[in-house]
Amino acid sequence: MDKIRIVGGNRLEGVIPISGAKNAALPLIIASLLTDERLTLENMPRLRDVSLLTRILTNHGVDYSLNGKRPGEDHLAGQTIHLTAREIVDTRAPYELVSQMRASFWVIGPLLARCHEAKVSLPGGCAIGTRPVDLFISGLQALGAQIDIEAGYAVAKAPGGLVGARYVFPKVSVGATHTLMMAATLAKGETVLENAAREPEVVDLADCLIAMGANIEGAGTSTIRIEGVDRLHGATHRVVPDRIETGTYAMAVAMTGGDVTLTGTSPDLLSNALDVLAATGTTVEAGPDGIRIARGSQPLRPVDVVTEPFPGFPTDLQAQFMALMTRASGVSRITETIFENRFMHVAELSRLGARIAIDGRTAEVTGVDRLIGAPVMATDLRASVSLVIGGLAAEGETIVSRVYHLDRGFERLEEKLTRCGAIVERISGEGMR
Ligand code: UD1
Fold this sequence. Notes:
The protein is an alpha/beta fold. It folds into two domains: 3-18 and 241-427, UDP-n-acetylglucosamine1-carboxyvinyl-transferase, Chain (Alpha-beta prism), CATH 3.65.10; 22-237, Enolpyruvate transferase domain (UDP-n-acetylglucosamine1-carboxyvinyl-transferase, Chain), CATH 3.65.10.10. It has 14 helices and 24 strands. The chain has helices at residues 22-31, 48-58, 95-98, 108-115, 134-142, 174-185, 200-211, 243-256, 271-279, 318-325, 345-351, 381-393, 404-409, 413-418; strands at residues 3-7, 12-17, 38-44, 63-66, 79-84, 92-93, 117-121, 146-150, 153-157, 166-168, 190-194, 215-217, 223-227, 235-238, 258-263, 283-287, 290-295, 305-306, 331-335, 355-359, 362-366, 375-377, 397-401, 423-427. A four-stranded mixed sheet has the order 22-23-1-24. It has a four-stranded mixed sheet with strand order 2-15-17-16, with helices on one face. The chain has a four-stranded mixed sheet with strand order 4-5-3-14. Helix 6 (174-185) links the parallel strand 10 (166-168) and strand 11. Helix 1 packs parallel to helix 2. The N and C termini lie close together (8 Å).
């Protein structure tokens, strides 16, 4: 298995291009199941989760192709992928596939909408909590589906098709919002989703579905109205920039000090997190070329955060922000309200010398003068990148193992950081324990 070696202490200076959002790319790929025509997605990130999901969809009968490199194109530019689900040959998603990626459960919405049946494995537990699917089930039932749980599978049927309805999410869920919105595009009549997720990725999916002929209003607010249509058609859509990647590099620069412009992204996607960063004393400036992040020798001020659904502080930046706060001049409190067990990075950050005490859902971080490099282990996607941020500021060498987590969500991380002066290299797994 690959590892990442970091020698800390260098400031970051330069430009980091931001990729298309993984969390938008995944539902957009799944949306291709809703039409027999071609869906073209531009600015796709080159990530393990994207290629895995694309391969999973081939099982349902989806053909796909990728554009090759074009003249003058930077190899960090996004890819263009074409997906065509001319005929759905299989409405089942087996455990072997769904267990590899939780988001593949979301196919249940489009399959039910287009084929009126689906048999999709329950995703099972995952490292950051139990992550149930009750909202997907009750929401699809509200649209008229009959769903039985049999031997670890959700077996869903909607003879005659789904029918529009009003559904109030008892809890905000990004995945269930994506799934019900996709399902409702082909349901008969109007669906109203209340207490829907407002994340930019929901807006991006809605924009793509609208380009495919769907009738959707209100995405980005907590009430989404969808008037069902008989069929959707092909379209071309550009994936929204990755706000989590943006926030991660912003925190890395705040951590090491330096001056970096993040290009191909927009501050509107993560205003709350940028406000928090500015409150630490880091310079955050939105300009025509992107977002400039800079910090000189001034100390980092401690700031308390609570994770919340969008537009609040994102849970997907919690671990990175905690890494940053390990070097603040004082005590900060970080409260995680979205997922249980999302503090697994605490033990690993502590190996670098961080002082963090956990009390229930809150971590109290006491800033220290120095972190010292150590071998650490990645436990999930966001936790692993928090260790990279820690390593960039630690004295000496940090080796992060199990980096396959990083490859799920961060495109060419070593290269993007190295271009800005960091010492980060991948050590190939061969020959290593
Ligand atoms: C998505 C993101 C993930 C992010 C999360 C929260 C993708 C691919 N992943 O995950 O990176 O951390 O949003 O912003 O977009 N829940 C239920 N019942 C359900 C569904 C969810 O109780 O049926 C709970 C979850 O356990 C969690 C909360 O709702 O506590 C929010 O989860 P949700 O928004 O659904 O996360 P995902 O869509 O899985």
